[in-house]
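Shapes recur. One chain:

:::
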Amino acid sequence: MDELKTLLSRYASTDELAMNGVTVGGTKYMFLSATDRVVRGKKGTSGIHCIKTVQGESNEMTHQSQDNVSGGVSHQPSK
């Protein structure tokens, strides 16, 4: 859950993503590019796309690697 909070807080800061990379599932990826919804990273011959969606009051992030391994996590912000 901490990885998700960290990544969500850095979506708007490409400088932080470039310096720190993107960590998902305990794996650190080299930051490639970002938009307001998508962050892309690379590790070796694999890559990852993290897609930010908003459903109600929760933030969700889905990711898919080049090896077609996908997953998703959600975070309900505290009020």
User: Anything to note?
Assistant: The CA atoms of residues 3 and 25 lie 8 Å apart.
